[in-house]
User: Which sequence fits this backbone?
């Protein structure tokens, strides 16, 4: 024993303790580890009990100090007290020496020290109380002492080095990791595994993972997983994981693991790197570890402590030391569920309450056969009431093999505007083994509100899996007919950040690419006195800026219009565009936006609404209305749960969130849509609005098996609905249609309106506008309450979505939609490069004139008026020309073009008449092979059964009687109907019919009528028009109607109107006066005539299909099947008839694909007829007053009208006659007489056929008396309100697709 004085520093104190170790160690050793530990003891003088220090880690081992103050075991005496150092590792081979010192805890000046000796496998030393009594008094001034132990360990073999290394790992495992309540688990066992890599160069360049051999610890099979070049963008690190092989096919067993992963020098365990982690292993988490385990460069650098790298000689050891635990309390389940939620939650939401609930079912057999929902008892968490909804046999028949499980909130159903933000888990477990359970959790923090009152999973677990025993523990979830169902709920504070996040999600979940957003923000408008504005018509917010654009919000507290009088309406206006007088119509700003109204104090209490489709702001449309945003009575309604309301204390907050997108993709897309909707051939085509709306389908494979899809858009102040039906009519066909949902409303001020549109239907790639399949309407269509929907039955074959060159379906997603152009009024077709002429002459043939209407290549109208006066005395004609250029434009101008005199001797009398006779002869009808005996209106017999390939063809049976209305409709087809169904007309193959009573058996008689299959397959598609229906059909161009040609005008009498269908004899044109019939004909209408243009050219859409999209092979007529009748339970679509038959340019492509076409039951277009020509009528036509096209000319017998080019007039003075009203004449009262304005009589010429495609403009002719004319109209024409005053229409045809 030595008594030391005045040691001024700790370093000197420790060095002196080291010098007190004198004992020599026997044997060899190659390394030494030494260190010290200090332990403070309070109340030393008054304490009589033994003192035990905390366990401490020193020199790679675990130790413990013990002081027995009252008795010395070493001396077996009360006069001594012992200090004992115990090695907690019980390592018998460990060699070490040590010194213990007792000192004042406030200084290192005075201490008592002694070397310890081995006794009973531990190190001991004793202090004599009597000898050191005075010394102790001087040390215990503060009644606190410090005990210091200095330990030196000796390592003399490689095995000891490894033992020390493993000991170190073992002790690290025993240390509790923060927040781990180890009492929730029961230790199964612990062990380690090391993987020696003899050639590191073989793995160090691998980008993929390297796996160790399989090893077993605690009955489980494992592998080490190493990423030498990092995982998940950790390229500068080595990533290291532990993988369990038993949980790949085991969905009920769970274990808790504490693990240390290490990498060590191959020859010396002193040089190593380690990291520890804890994890719950189960089927959904069979691999865990550390992504940034060690920097790759540190593998080759000298260790900071031992100056030696970990990888030497291209060798290294990697391994794992792990402890495995089973769950023995419900807290272990909740801990796993909580950790899983926190791990995935990156928003750092503020948790305000969390808890769990368990529902024990003691008799599963009692409920397992139930087809209904089973409710748990009601429980409360976070101040809200909840129930678990259990469906033992699934919530739908298709889920009958599964358990469906949901967490239902009982409050939000009666709390319309409350929002609860939370994460949850649901689980089913063995009633006595906490390690055996199956669970699910919310993928993202979910929002409970009145529209989302429950969340869960419809296929929670298979029924059979409840009884399958775990392969490791041999335990099923249901045991002894018992089971426990539980939930863990974690409720978050709903703050402004969460509100804005939810509002943004409304827009982000829409089919917009978030990467295209160039600016976004929100603005709130606080209203401090709601009573002050609630009775006003409208109130504007202060202007605000988002995305360098100036905006404002307009509130209509009592609705925007009468239709929305019970609602608060909102309007968002872009003031930057509105106030810019130089803004262009095509300068678009693409946005999406959402409104919300909330309680002034609580962000969780709000209501939101948004414009689902893209908001396109431009000069023509700089604002958007949301008319029915929220009902007025809801604003001040107080809920019964937390007594909140939107307007509270007369205050409320209104907000808007706006996203602004890049223009490039949308501009390109819209420009291509506009090219498809080409209305350059139309006039009076003022556009009210045009835009598109669309919807993204996120899970096509699953949802398309079960549902049809609809999305709405407001365009032109009408509500439109695009409908996609994956399996509506055929196994592989996908149908797409457009419906005007405005006419489905119970109340709408537009219910009786007619709306004219052109549109494009499309399916495209969800993130690339270049991959798209389109079909355009071609012509414009009329929508009204009788004609609400138009569509394409087989828009695309389902298999074509998966073609690699289409790229329409990607990531199991696609987008479908419609682009619509809405017209202000009914457009009219432009007349191009056409002349219309009208001439007159006085009774004495001394003066006359005419009008020439000329439509140029742009459809602009030039009018030339000319007059002449004959002066026989001077033998000349005086002529004046007067021109009006571009009369139908905004800038017409007039001019007197010519005023001359012509000598009569220079005029040839016969030039006009001869040319007219030639024209007449060229228009004569040719024989069609049936001879002159077969006339229109003949009754024929079907030679065999016939099933049309297309719905515009007529189906009939053998020997069925048919009536032919037009033998020359097509070279190989006639137009007619069945006697059994006079309302359904269609095309009839001529080789399938024969005159009644005559049968043709020779092939030669019918050869000229046969249709060439090859010619059908090589043609493009063309529309056929019908007044009865306008349902689009794919029609080969060989079936398309010819250009308009002269047709007989029907002439009826009382007897013919009373008879059934019968053939009428054809009467040649005659100049004799027609004798009146014994009945009064229908008077002619004096209204100006507005004929319907007729489409005489094939329709050929040009869908936007940029590379690399390749248009599918066009459908061949042989592959198109007739449409079977649809049962009434299937929603059919009623399509409007064409309001006009446009004349689009001839197609130059042979690959048109399923384009839109009109008319299931095509009829020949109304044509003007030569007078006194008999005509066959259907019974329905006979029962309906007919309207005929004719000219009503002056009553004076000397007046004549000529439609051929005028002759050279005489030189004379000229005066324009004033127009006079025209008398109304019937067909029987008038027989035209034609004469030339020459000095010799002119031969009679037939009237020029009226061409309805090019109507004469409503200008006053120069004739003193000119009557109005009206066209022949089919009595069963549907959908065109313009013809309702001419014929009585029956009920609309049943809705159907083609």
Assistant:
């Amino acid at each position: 024993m030595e008594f030391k004085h005045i040691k001024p520093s700790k370093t000197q104190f420790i060095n002196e303790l080291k010098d007190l170790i004198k004992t020599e160690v026997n044997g060899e050793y190659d390394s030494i580890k030494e260190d010290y530990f200090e332990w403070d003891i309070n109340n030393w003088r008054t304490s009589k009990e033994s003192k035990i220090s905390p366990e401490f880690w020193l020199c790679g081992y675990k130790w413990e100090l013990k002081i027995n103050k009252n008795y010395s075991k070493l001396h077996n005496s009360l006069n001594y007290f012992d200090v004992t150092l115990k090695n907690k590792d019980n390592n018998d081979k460990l060699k070490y020496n040590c010194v213990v010192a007792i000192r004042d805890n406030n200084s290192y000046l005075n201490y008592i020290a002694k070397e310890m000796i081995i006794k009973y496998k531990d190190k001991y030393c004793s202090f004599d109380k009597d000898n050191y009594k005075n010394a102790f008094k001087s040390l215990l001034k503060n009644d606190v002492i410090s005990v210091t132990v200095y330990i030196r360990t000796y390592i003399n073999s490689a095995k000891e080095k490894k033992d020390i290394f493993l000991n170190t790992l073992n002790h690290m495992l025993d240390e509790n990791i923060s927040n781990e309540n180890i009492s929730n688990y029961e230790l199964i066992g612990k062990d380690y595994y090391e993987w020696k890599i003899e050639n590191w160069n073989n793995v160090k360049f691998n980008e993929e993972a390297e796996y160790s051999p399989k090893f077993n610890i605690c009955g489980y099979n494992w592998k080490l997983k190493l990423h030498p070049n990092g995982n998940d963008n950790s390229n500068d690190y080595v990533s290291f994981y532990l993988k369990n092989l038993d949980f790949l096919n085991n969905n009920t067993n769970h274990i808790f693991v504490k693990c240390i992963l290490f990498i060590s020098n191959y020859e010396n365990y002193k040089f190593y790197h380690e990291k520890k982690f804890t994890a719950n292993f189960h089927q959904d988490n069979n691999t865990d570890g550390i992504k940034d385990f060690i920097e790759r460069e540190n593998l080759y650098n000298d260790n900071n402590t031992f100056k030696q790298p970990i990888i030497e000689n291209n060798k290294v050891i990697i391994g794992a030391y792990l402890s495995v635990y089973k769950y023995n309390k419900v807290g272990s389940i909740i801990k796993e569920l909580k950790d899983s939620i926190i791990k995935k939650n990156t928003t750092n939401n503020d948790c305000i309450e969390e808890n769990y609930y368990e529902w024990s079912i003691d008799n599963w057999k009692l409920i397992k056969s139930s087809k209904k929902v089973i409710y748990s008892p009601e429980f409360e968490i976070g101040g809200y009431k909840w129930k678990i909804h259990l469906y033992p046999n699934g919530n739908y028949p298709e889920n009958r093999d599964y358990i469906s499980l949901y967490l239902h909130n009982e409050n939000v159903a009666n709390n319309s505007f409350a929002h609860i933000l939370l994460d949850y888990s649901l689980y089913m477990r063995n009633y006595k083994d906490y390690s055996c359970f199956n669970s699910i959790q919310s993928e993202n923090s979910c929002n409970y509100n009145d529209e989302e009152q429950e969340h869960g999973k419809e296929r929670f677990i298979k029924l059979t899996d409840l009884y399958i025993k775990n392969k490791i523990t041999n335990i099923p979830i249901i045991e002894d007919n018992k089971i426990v169902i539980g939930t863990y709920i974690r409720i978050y504070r709903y703050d402004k950040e969460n509100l804005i996040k939810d509002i943004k999600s409304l827009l982000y979940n829409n089919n917009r690419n978030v990467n295209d957003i160039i600016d976004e923000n929100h603005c709130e408008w606080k209203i401090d006195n709601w009573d002050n504005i609630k009775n006003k018509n409208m109130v504007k917010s202060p202007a605000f800026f988002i995305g360098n654009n100036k905006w404002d919000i307009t509130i209509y507290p009592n609705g925007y219009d009468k239709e929305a009088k019970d609602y608060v309406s909102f309007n968002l206006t872009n003031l930057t565009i509105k106030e810019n007088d130089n803004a262009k119509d095509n300068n678009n700003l693409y946005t999406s936006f959402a409104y919300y109204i909330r309680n002034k104090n609580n962000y969780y209490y709000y209501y939101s609404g948004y414009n689902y489709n893209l908001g396109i702001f431009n000069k023509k449309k700089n604002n958007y209305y949301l008319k029915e945003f929220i009902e007025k009575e809801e604003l001040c309604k107080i809920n019964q749960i937390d007594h909140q309301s939107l307007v509270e204390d007369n205050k409320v907050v209104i907000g808007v969130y706006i996203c602004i997108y890049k223009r490039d993709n949308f501009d390109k897309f819209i420009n291509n849509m506009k090219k498809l909707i080409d209305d350059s051939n139309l006039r009076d085509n003022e556009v009210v609005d045009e835009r598109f709306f669309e919807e993204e389908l996120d899970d096509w494979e699953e949802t398309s098996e079960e549902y049809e899809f609809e999305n709405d858009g407001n365009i032109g102040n009408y509500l439109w609905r695009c409908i996609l039906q994956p399996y509506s009519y055929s196994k592989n066909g996908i149908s797409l249609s457009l419906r005007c949902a405005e006419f489905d409303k119970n109340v709408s001020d537009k219910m009786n309106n007619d709306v004219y549109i052109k549109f494009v239907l499309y399916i495209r790639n969800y993130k690339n506008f270049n991959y798209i399949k389109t079909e355009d309407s071609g012509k414009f269509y009329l929508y009204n309450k009788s004609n609400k929907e138009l569509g394409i039955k087989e828009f695309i074959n389902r298999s074509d979505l998966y073609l690699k060159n289409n790229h329409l379906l990607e990531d199991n997603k696609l987008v479908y939609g419609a682009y619509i152009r809405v017209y202000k009024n009914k457009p009219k077709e432009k007349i191009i490069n056409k002349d219309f002429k009208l001439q007159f002459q006085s009774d004495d043939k001394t003066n006359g004139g005419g009008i020439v209407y000329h439509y140029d290549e742009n459809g602009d109208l030039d009018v030339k008026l000319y007059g002449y006066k004959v002066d026989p005395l001077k033998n000349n004609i005086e002529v004046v020309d007067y021109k009006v250029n571009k009369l139908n434009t905004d800038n017409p101008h007039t001019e007197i073009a010519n005023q001359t005199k012509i000598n009569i001797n220079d005029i040839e009398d016969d030039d006009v008449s001869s040319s007219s006779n030639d024209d007449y002869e060229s228009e004569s009808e040719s024989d069609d092979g049936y001879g002159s005996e077969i006339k229109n209106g003949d009754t024929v017999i079907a030679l065999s059964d016939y099933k049309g390939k297309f719905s515009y063809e007529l189906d009939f049976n053998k020997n069925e009687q048919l009536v032919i209305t037009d033998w020359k409709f097509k070279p190989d087809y006639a137009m007619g109907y069945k006697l059994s169904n006079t309302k359904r007309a269609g095309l009839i193959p001529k080789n399938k019919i024969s005159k009644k009573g005559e049968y043709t058996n020779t092939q030669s008689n019918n050869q000229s009528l046969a249709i060439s299959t090859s010619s059908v397959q090589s043609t493009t598609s063309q529309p056929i028009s019908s007044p009865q229906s306008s349902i689009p059909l794919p029609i080969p161009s060989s079936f398309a109607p010819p250009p308009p040609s002269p047709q007989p005008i029907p002439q009826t009498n009382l007897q013919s109107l009373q008879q059934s269908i019968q053939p009428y004899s054809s009467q040649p044109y005659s100049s004799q006066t027609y004798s009146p019939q014994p009945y009064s004909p229908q008077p002619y209408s004096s209204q100006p005539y507005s004929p319907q243009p007729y489409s005489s050219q094939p329709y050929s859409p040009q869908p936007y299909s940029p590379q690399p999209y390749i248009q599918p092979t066009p459908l061949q007529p042989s592959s198109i099947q007739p449409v079977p009748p649809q049962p009434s339970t299937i929603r059919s679509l009623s399509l409007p008839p064409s309001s006009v038959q446009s004349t689009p340019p001839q197609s130059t492509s042979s690959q048109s694909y399923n384009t839109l076409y009109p008319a299931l039951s095509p009829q020949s277009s109304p044509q003007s007829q030569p007078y006194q020509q008999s005509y066959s009528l259907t019974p329905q036509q006979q029962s309906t007053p007919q309207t005929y096209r004719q000219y009503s000319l002056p009553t004076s017998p000397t007046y004549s009208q000529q439609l051929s080019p005028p002759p050279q007039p005489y030189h004379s003075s000229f005066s324009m006659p004033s127009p006079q009203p025209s008398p109304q004449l019937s067909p029987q009262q008038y027989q035209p007489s034609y004469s030339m304005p020459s000095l010799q009589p002119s031969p009679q010429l037939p009237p020029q056929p009226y061409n309805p495609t090019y109507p004469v403009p409503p200008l006053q002719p120069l004739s003193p008396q000119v009557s109005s004319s009206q066209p022949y109209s089919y009595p069963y024409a549907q959908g065109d309100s313009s013809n309702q005053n001419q014929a009585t229409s029956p009920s609309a045809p049943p809705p159907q697709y083609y």
